[in-house]
């Protein structure tokens, strides 16, 4: 009998929560797959708190996940890229989870039929905390992403290794096909938007030059950049290498969001023997101050992350 998410996760409350999110992702996948046949492409006509033109699929994905979480007695609050403020459910005494998510990652790729994804971080309310307490990524109880593509893959960790599932379109359930996924200690690829290279601090320019000419880690790298974080990360998890989004003039603190992009992927990376920093410290140790804060992001195989972080930290 193939293992599903619900049977793979020991803790029943967490299994119910992540299965509900997976079901929402099946709805998102089916809308993406037929995007050209329904009026779901293009912009929604509203600018979100990120200053981005919300895409119709951003809003659709957000609505799907919120609709899946609202009825769950265990979910106390939601933080979403697409909502300015956290959504707190006041009618659920004893609710313990905070679901923090990027409902549709890679929005710029929706209209050109390139991989997009969903990224989720789960925190649990502890004694003395409220449903809006923000906590460092090292407190996450689970992290999950789905990458929608030629096949649709769900990867999660609940702190005991990283496991991957493939969506069976006939049964619309995610079926386990990778257990204990491990990131290679060094990989063949680096992934960065090099259009911004003139903006990158010198240490990052030096690091990229060293990856290209082989002087940083003794091997010459190839470049891959999809422009959807979740797809660039999934390749890095499977093949090894490094993804980096350094500070730029437009995004002096980095572009990617700590709570629902960097933290969940950093938990998955570390559980798969990889690493993730902001150029000076472990992503998972950053104490957040506000829900949509951004961070410089270096994530991938241990050797590359350590070498680039050393340069970036001026060591
Ligand atoms: P989102 O679509 O959720 O707003 O995220 C987009 C992010 C991420 O997916 C990707 O790595 C990055 O934006 C690409 O940024 P650039 O286009 O500046 O390279
Ligand atoms: Mn966005
Ligand atoms: Mn994103
Ligand atoms: Mn998004």
Written account of the structure:
With about 325 residues, the chain is α+β, with helices and mostly antiparallel strands. The protein has 2 domains: about 1-180, Fructose-1,6-Bisphosphatase, subunit A, domain 1 (Fructose-1,6-Bisphosphatase, Chain A, domain 1, 2-Layer Sandwich), CATH 3.30.540; about 190-310, D-Maltodextrin-Binding Protein, domain 2, CATH 3.40.190. About 30% of the residues lie in helices and about 25% in strands. It contains 7 helices and 17 strands. An 8-stranded mixed sheet has the order 4-3-5-6-7-8-9-10, sandwiched between helices. The protein has a 5-stranded mixed sheet with strand order 12-11-13-17-15, with helices on both faces. It has a two-stranded antiparallel ribbon with strand order 1-2. Strand 11, helix 4 (about 200-215) and strand 12 (about 220-225) form a beta-alpha-beta unit. The model has no long low-confidence stretch (mean pLDDT about 95). The structure holds 2,5-anhydro-1,6-di-O-phosphono-D-glucitol and manganese (II) ion (3 copies). One manganese (II) ion binds next to strand 5. It is found in: Cytoplasm. GO terms for molecular function: fructose 1,6-bisphosphate 1-phosphatase activity; magnesium ion binding.
């Amino acid at each position: 009998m193939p293992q599903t998410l619900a049977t793979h996760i020991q803790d029943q409350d967490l299994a119910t929560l992540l299965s509900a999110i997976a079901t929402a992702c099946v709805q998102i996948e089916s809308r993406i797959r037929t995007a050209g046949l329904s009026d779901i492409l293009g912009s929604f006509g509203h600018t979100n708190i990120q200053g981005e033109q919300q895409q119709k699929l951003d809003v659709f994905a957000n609505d799907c996940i919120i609709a899946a979480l609202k009825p769950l007695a265990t979910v106390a609050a939601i933080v979403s890229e697409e909502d300015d403020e956290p959504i707190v459910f006041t009618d659920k005494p004893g609710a313990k989870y905070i679901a923090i998510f990027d409902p549709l990652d890679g929005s710029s790729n929706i209209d050109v039929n390139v991989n997009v994804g969903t990224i989720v971080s789960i925190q649990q309310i502890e004694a003395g905390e409220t449903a809006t307490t923000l906590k460092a990524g090292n407190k996450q109880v689970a992290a999950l992403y789905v990458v929608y593509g030629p096949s649709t893959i769900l990867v999660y960790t609940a702190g005991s290794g990283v496991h991957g599932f493939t969506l069976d379109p006939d049964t619309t359930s995610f079926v386990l096909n990778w257990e204990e996924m491990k990131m290679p200690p060094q990989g063949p690829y680096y992934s960065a938007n090099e259009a911004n290279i003139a903006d990158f601090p010198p240490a990052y320019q030096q690091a990229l030059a060293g990856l290209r000419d082989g002087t940083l880690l003794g091997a010459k790298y190839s470049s891959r950049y999809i422009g959807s974080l979740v797809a660039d990360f999934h390749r890095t998890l499977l093949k090894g290498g490094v993804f980096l989004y350094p500070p730029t003039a437009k995004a002096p603190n980095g572009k990617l969001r700590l709570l629902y992009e960097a933290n969940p992927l950093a938990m998955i990376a570390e559980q798969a023997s990889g690493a993730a920093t902001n150029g000076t410290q472990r992503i998972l140790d950053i104490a957040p101050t506000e829900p949509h804060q951004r961070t410089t992001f270096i994530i991938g195989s241990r050797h590359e992350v350590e070498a680039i972080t050393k340069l970036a930290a001026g060591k």
